[in-house]
Specification:
Blueprint lengths: L1 E8 L7 H14 L2 E4 L4 E4 L2 H16 L5 E8 L7 H16 L2
Antiparallel strand pairs: 1-3, 1-4, 2-3
Helix pairs in contact: 1-2
């Protein structure tokens, strides 16, 4: 499955780069495939593994903040692998063949 999520504390007045760096480290340490972006992160894996890593991110932020915002979108497709890169590759290949 693919899971796109954003997680951040509410009520912080300055930038979130420190918190985001810690979150990215938690995701890296999970061993799951992921792509970090400016507004969200996409993680690929099994339900329990993805939910576990999101919960670890949540627990990290709850150590410092009382309120956290989490937005999660999931594409749960059976037997799909490497969809993080595959979905993008399919679109770019189609564009190159048909729209150039």
């Amino acid at each position: 499955m693919l899971c796109q999520f954003s997680i951040f504390p509410l009520g912080k007045e300055k930038g979130l780069h420190e918190e985001v760096a810690h979150i990215v480290k938690i995701i890296e340490d999970s061993g799951l495939s992921f792509k970090f972006g400016p507004m969200s992160t996409v993680v690929e894996g099994e339900w329990q593994d993805i939910m576990s890593v999101i919960n670890k991110c949540r627990e990290y932020l709850h150590q410092k903040y009382d309120r956290i915002y989490i937005n999660i979108s999931i594409d749960d497709r059976k037997n799909a692998v490497n969809r993080i890169n595959g979905k993008v590759k399919e679109v770019l290949e189609f564009k190159e063949r048909n729209l150039s």
